[in-house]
Amino acid sequence: MPPDLDRITVTGIEAYGYHGLLPHEREHGQRFVVDVVLALDLSPAGETGDLAASVHYGTLSERVADAIASDPVDLIETLALRILRICFGFEPVRWASVTVHKPDAPIAVTFSDVAVTIERSRT
User: Fold this and answer.
1) What mean pLDDT is predicted for residues 94-123?
2) Is-catalytic flag, 33?
């Protein structure tokens, strides 16, 4: 994360999606959980009380849940990039980190979570 920026963090955004390479993942779907960390300067919002100078985390969460539930993709990497684009749709965001968890991934051994994290800065 770039220095001198503040953070907004929303963790555990959960929705049902049909992402994956295997036919039964596309047919039956599964639970996905997303964590988002946004870096931005919160001083203008803090000083003025103007939400437009920040990010409405309710709106962000709804858009992320919609992205999970929308068009299926093969890889959670693709889903993470889709969500990252949503994050940068909020003008004040300068950096974002998106983690997509696939806790019910079809893995033959005992595990607690599978996750992909993508971090990017606005250019």
Assistant:
1) 95
2) no
